[in-house]
């Protein structure tokens, strides 16, 4: 009897893991499709020789943000809205880089923990979204411009 219960337990465990993986895969499909559509739109509209990274930003509008290299090995950043009706292209050196945004976060915001720092776009302004845990243990969002790191907005969740 104990072997039957163990066998049924193993089968149930395998089914639960399989369904969990299937669920996770299905949840990620729309994000992958949006990224693929944006990448196709990008390649049809600008010359880019290599995509270095891709990220998703969801603000007022959703954007796919790509970092890449031009034919001349120049680093560029491309913001593509999910509407696929336009794109914004900036050279990486036209604004602050990730390390400068991170340094600003450490020195000015003094977080307990940095959750993420990523590029996004609000009201046609390229920006960095900084998500962190502040000294009061609040989940906090802070937005600075890509151009020069100037303040845009912030808010806190929690206590």
Outline:
With 159 residues, the protein is of the alpha+beta class. It has helices at 2-45, 98-109; strands spanning 50-58, 62-69, 75-81, 88-91, 113-122, 125-133, 139-145, 151-157.
Structure, explained:
With 159 residues, the chain is of the alpha+beta class. The protein has helices at 2-45, 98-109; strands spanning 50-58, 62-69, 75-81, 88-91, 113-122, 125-133, 139-145, 151-157. It folds into two domains: 2-90, Roll (Nuclear Transport Factor 2, Chain: A); 98-157, Nuclear Transport Factor 2, Chain: A. Helices cover 35% and strands 38% of the residues. The protein has a four-stranded antiparallel beta sheet with strand order 1-2-3-4, with helices on one face. A four-stranded antiparallel beta sheet has the order 5-6-7-8, covered by helices on one side. Strand 3 (75-81) and strand 4 form a beta hairpin. The chain is extended. The chain starts with a helix and ends with a strand. The relative contact order is 0.11.
Keywords, please?
38% strand; extended; 159 residues; alpha+beta; Nuclear Transport Factor 2, Chain: A; four-stranded antiparallel β-sheet; single chain; 8 strands
In the CATH scheme, what's the topology name of the largest domain?
Nuclear Transport Factor 2, Chain: A
Order of helices and strands: HEEEEHEEEE
Number of helices: 2
The whole-angstrom Rg is 21 Å
CATH class of the largest domain: Alpha Beta
Q: Which structural class is indicated by helix and strand composition?
A: alpha+beta
Name given to the CATH architecture of the largest domain: Roll
Level of helix content? 25-40%
Mean pLDDT: 88
- Strand percentage, roughly? 35-45%
**What count of structural domains?**
2
């Amino acid at each position: 009897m104990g072997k039957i219960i163990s066998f049924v337990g193993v089968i149930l465990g395998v089914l639960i893991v399989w369904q969990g993986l299937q669920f996770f895969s299905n949840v990620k499909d729309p994000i992958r499709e949006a990224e693929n559509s944006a990448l196709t739109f990008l390649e049809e509209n600008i010359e880019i020789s290599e995509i270095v990274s891709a990220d998703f930003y969801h603000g007022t509008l959703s954007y796919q943000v790509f970092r890449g290299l031009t034919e001349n090995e120049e680093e560029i950043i491309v913001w593509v809205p999910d509407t696929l009706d336009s794109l914004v292209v900036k050279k990486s050196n036209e604004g602050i880089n990730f390390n400068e945004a991170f340094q600003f976060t450490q020195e000015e915001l003094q977080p307990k923990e940095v959750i993420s720092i990523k590029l996004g776009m609000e009201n046609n302004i390229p920006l960095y979204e900084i998500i962190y845990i502040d000294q009061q243990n609040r989940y906090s969002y802070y937005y600075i411009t890509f151009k020069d790191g100037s303040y845009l907005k912030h808010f806190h969740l929690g206590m």
